[in-house]
Amino acid sequence: DPKYTEEEAAKFYDDYDAQAALFLTKETLALWAYDSNITDHNLQKKLAASAETAKYTKESWSKLIKFPWKDFSDPELKRKFKLSSVLGNAALSEEDYNKLQSIVGEMSAIYSKAKICSYQDKSKCDLSLEPELTELLMKSRDPEELRHIWIEWRRNSGEKVKEQYKEYVALSNKAAIMNNFDNAAALWLNNYESDEFRDQIGELWHQLKPLYQQLHAYVRRHLRIKYGDGVVKAKGPIPAHLLGNMWAQTWGNIADFMLPYPERQSTDVTPNMIKQGYTAERMFKLSEEFFTSLNLSAMPEMFWDKSILEKPNDGRELVCHASAWDFYDRKDFRIKQCTRINQEDLYTAHHEMGHVQYFLQYKHQPIVFRTGANDGFHEAIGDVMSLSVSTPKHLRTIGLLEEESTETDKKASYEATINYLFSTALDKIAFLPFAYELDLWRWDVFEGKTTPENYNCHFWKLAHEFQGIEPPVDRTEEDFDIASKYHIVADVPYIRYFISFVIQFQFHKGLCQAAGQLENNAPLHECDIYKSATAGNLLGSMLQLGASKPWPDAMEVVTGQRKMDASALREYFAPLEEWLRAENEKTGEFIGWDKTDKYCVQ
Ligand SMILES: C=C(C[SeH])C(=O)N1CCC[C@H]1C(=O)O
Ligand SMILES: [Zn+2]
Questions:
Q1: What's the average model confidence in pLDDT over 587-602?
Q2: Is 487 a catalytic residue?
Q3: Which residue in the list 152, 352, 437, 589 is annotated as catalytic?
Q4: Which terminal Cβ of the chain has fewer Cβ within 10 Å, N or C?
Q5: Is the Cβ–Cβ distance between 115 and 125 less than 8 Å?
Q6: Bridge partners, 306 (sequence order)
Q7: Residues in CB range of 323: below 8 A, 6 or more apart
């Protein structure tokens, strides 16, 4: 081949990047059209657009890899070629690629369209996951109703996609091998650019498990008090349907009957949101104002015109799972969320706005760098904002929580703090084993350690080992419970959320320091970076990098650290951890869980 100069390589790459953007815009618009209106017609158009992009990407890739990019001296040009040298699923033949895309599209459609019959009224069979089943799991305290919903949702979602899932695994592995990886697990983990990454995740879980076990023991005690020994065993795993969430992944919705200090004011802002006539748009405007208070970007006008912030009531079927969208034209950015007026959705709105803020901050980058420093970064940004917004002090500032005279009374203030940390731990700590086990299962499946004959029982083995939960009824291999979760059917990796829930506390601590919120030993859990342009500018300088630098360089900008580290999370929850240990000691609670008496029949 002719000896290419780096200048020629740079020119070639810029032309490729500009052309790739046009294909990506077209594909993303077709994907949006399908996800916001699930019809066969829109599926065919999505598949056609994806095929075109894949074809162009593959053609360009075969030219890109001919450049001697490993010898380039310009680090940024070298990184552009390095990241672009991994083709991903587009490496498949057109036929296989189209097959994989249509399997994922159909599994997502089955999931998004699934409906079940009401527990009370067997003739009412139009209950969707959002909002009906989500709200029932949030509010119902009837274990039989919860059990019905738990079983019926799985029968109408996961169980229906088991055949397609096997083919999804085979095609995903075929693509990975064509990218010179051993299997899809290795391709997915390539995003983190570190061979020891899985070990680092395991070490983080090892550090955090004791705190999880303390929380688990306390929650199990109060579930046993509420539902009786017949439903919740003193030393057993917790029945999964009682935890306020369809997948038992966050437990914040059952805080109300187990607060450490019940006589203290609840920090659930849902009643005040409803009383003050909050709308979905106002929730997103509130989040936007938090970002602009940090001297970060407001949403472009087009965002408000084109986003879908409430479930349409025109009878169409759509993917309600919340998502943020970058259309790669540096102008069009959207959120699609079937928002309900409650606290959980207020923080989800902040989560999604964090994605859009990242899009806005790195929009000047070439396509290949318009993504998170690693996938965990993208999931963390919005949650970092919520760590400030959810403080009782901030909620009072924005009028979502009544003033309280705890400032003067030290005891009352301590009790209010423990309640706040407890509610936050029900979302942040309870989530960790769930987020870990989802990709532990998929890595085992991609690596062939778990075969279709024990897909379901392997999942329940992991859920028992890591979450200390059990199904409300015996399971079999006819069931396919893990696929009752969006990310499994939608081909979205999940370890990114485990990473996010650890690093978001590192980012929070770095920004709090920058905002001067940690002077005189002020506790991390009271920090609110609101209106700190210093903190915002620091965060912005990390976000603007996108993926143009390896993620340790990006992390170092905000935290001064180059590794994931659970210390900030432990520091944040330290007062609660101490309280839980003392409380479980006092009540003689058994820490951990013994085997389940629910069978998973192979
Ligand atoms: C809100 C989103 C869209 Se990226 C989401 O999927 N999340 C946010 C936190 C965990 C995970 C989930 O819902 O399972
Ligand atoms: Zn997200």
A1: 92
A2: yes
A3: 352
A4: N
A5: yes
A6: none
A7: 35, 335, 336, 337, 352
Q: What is the pLDDT of residues 99-155, one digit of tens each?
A: 999 999 999 999 999 999 999 999 999 999 999 999 999 999 999 999 999 999 999
- As a whole number of angstroms, the distance between CA 379 and CA 347 comes to 13
Confidence at 5, pLDDT banded by 50, 70, 90: confident
* Mean predicted confidence (pLDDT) in 308-335: 98
Predicted confidence (pLDDT) at residue 273 exceeds the cutoff of 80 = yes
Q: Distance (Å, rounded) from C-alpha 310 to C-alpha 316?
A: 13
DSSP 239: E
Cα 281 to ligand 1 centroid, rounded to whole Å: 20
CB 245 near ligand 1, within 6 Å: no
Instruction: Tell me the C-alpha distance between 185 and 172, whole Å.
Output: 9
DSSP three-state, residue 229:
coil
Residue nearest to atom 11 of ligand 1 (CA): 497
Which of 317, 447, 477, 487 is labelled catalytic?
487
Question: What is the reported pLDDT for 405?
Answer: 64
Q: What is the mean pLDDT of residues 340-344?
A: 98
Rounded distance from Cα 552 to ligand 2 centre (Å): 20
pLDDT band at 599 (very low <50, low <70, confident <90, very high): confident
- State which H helix or E strand residue 305 sits in: helix 301-306
Is pLDDT of 602 > 80? no
HEC letters along 405-455: HHHCCHHHHHHHHHHHHHHHHHHHCCHHHHHHHHHHHHHHHHCCCCCHHHH
CA 94 to chain CA mean position, Å: 31
**How far is Cα of residue 153 from the mean position of the Cα atoms in its chain?**
21
Helix H or strand E encompassing 475: strand 475-476
Instruction: Count Cα neighbours of 541 within 13 Å in the Cβ-side half-sphere.
Output: 12
Ligand 1 atom nearest to CA at 379: 4
Given ligand 1 and candidates 387, 497, 502, which is best to mutate, with the most ligand atoms within 8 Å of its CB? Answer: 497
Mean pLDDT calculated for residue range 166-170: 98
* Exposure letters 366-383 (e unless 16+ CB within 10 A, then b): bbbbbbbbbbbbbbbbbb
Q: Residue 323: CB within 6 Å of ligand 1?
A: yes
Please tell me the number of the ligand nearest to residue 501's CA. 1
Annotated catalytic residue 222: no
Q: Strand, coil or helix: what is 151? A: helix
Cβ–ligand 1 distance for 497 under 6 Å, the answer yes
pLDDT at 499 over 70: yes
Question: Which residues have their alpha-adjacent CB atom under 5 A from ion ligand 2?
Answer: 379
Two tokens at 264?
A: 């203290």
Question: How distant, in Å, are the alpha carbons of 49, 121, 256 from that of 150?
Answer: 37, 16, 21
- In the predicted structure, residue 93 carries a pLDDT above the cut 80: yes
ipTM of the complex: 0.99
d(CA 140, CA 480): 25
Q: What is the pLDDT of residue 407?
A: 57
> Confidence band (pLDDT; 50, 70, 90) for 408?
low
Tell me the three state secondary structure of residue 469. Answer: strand
